[in-house]
Write a structure and sequence with these properties.
3-stranded antiparallel β-sheet; 4-stranded mixed β-sheet
Length: 305
């Protein structure tokens, strides 16, 4: 779906979820061996063009159509960006405007959606893109907000859900507590509201069946709180972890690859020369550095001087 001005609605990246299975080569090894872990990291509220529209060779956009006709260039994205953008099912339909892709100014009351990050603002993402696969024609599973897309991530479906939970009453959560309700849609386009509790096959079910261990890291309850048979079973108590547990420990599946990575803190890029890499010792014991640590793209842990 591309308008004449080249503005596309790309897959939103989803924030705050880390899903790890025991299927990464050693974090301090240069060459991949047998895969030991697979890590899925979700980030959200950014489109492909918002992050990678200017990436060399990618099918990206640097301008967008507006509802009144003019094509406007995508302006630099502020480091701390708090624009109020509607990303509901209906707002997405309004913005896409039957494929014309010219209604994004209508869902925000202005040009707030027409922004773009530069490589200097997000250097680590661009390093990943250079050294791994960059899916420049990847679209979101549901043209809507977090909940339905998080469901797709773990189950390849959303149970018909098209929006986030609304309100605090009228529904019942999977743990039996009062909740709001979620809009769901059937194949004929008919909508209804239901409790934010579903029950269908998920990726963890397949992992359990195959005898493969897994862990779900998130601050808060997360998407599995909406899957009845997981929320009310040992999978809920045995397989949930907090994001803080990752940053405070040495996680062997925290793997990257390529050249030295810098990091961005408050919009400032840490130069690579300020990272000191420590390789895995001969004994196989990895050195962990908790305060201000980063990883290079060979999987070696670095300390910030």
């Amino acid at each position: 779906m591309r308008a004449a001005g080249g503005f596309k609605l790309k897959a939103a990246m989803s924030l705050g979820l880390l899903f790890a299975t025991a299927v990464t080569f050693s974090a301090c090894s240069r060459a991949p061996a047998a895969i030991e872990h697979t890590v899925i990291i979700l980030q959200e509220n950014h489109t492909f063009d918002n992050y990678f529209g200017t990436f060399p060779g990618a099918d990206g956009a640097t301008s967008g159509l507006t509802s009144t006709g003019p094509v406007v260039p995508l302006s630099p994205m502020p480091d701390a960006y708090q624009a109020s953008l509607c990303n509901s099912w209906d707002c997405a339909i309004q913005a896409m405007d039957a494929g014309k892709m010219d209604g994004f100014d209508l869902i925000s009351g202005g040009l707030a959606p027409y922004t773009q990050a530069t490589e200097q603002e997000i250097p680590n993402y661009w390093e990943y893109a250079r050294h791994f696969v960059l899916a420049d024609r990847y679209f979101t599973s549901v043209h809507g907000p977090s909940l339905p897309n998080h469901l797709f991530t773990v189950a390849a479906q959303s149970g018909g859900a098209i929006d986030n939970e609304f309100g605090t009453s009228g529904g019942t959560a999977c743990d039996g507590s009062p909740s709001g309700t979620v809009a769901v849609i059937d194949p004929n386009g008919n909508r209804r509201r239901q409790s934010p509790c579903f029950d269908f096959m998920t990726l963890p079910d397949l992992l359990e069946r195959a005898g493969i261990s897994w862990k779900y890291y998130i601050d808060g309850d997360g998407i599995f709180a909406t899957i009845r048979h997981i929320r009310n079973s040992s999978m809920w108590t045995n397989n949930r972890g907090h994001v803080g547990a990752i940053s405070s420990g040495c996680s062997e599946w925290a793997v990257t690859g390529g050249e030295l990575a810098s990091r961005t803190v408050g919009g400032q890029r840490t130069p690579p020369e300020q990272c000191v890499c420590r390789r895995q010792s001969d004994s196989g014991v990895r050195e962990c550095h908790h305060a201000g640590s980063c990883l290079d793209f060979h999987g070696r842990v670095c300390d910030l001087r």
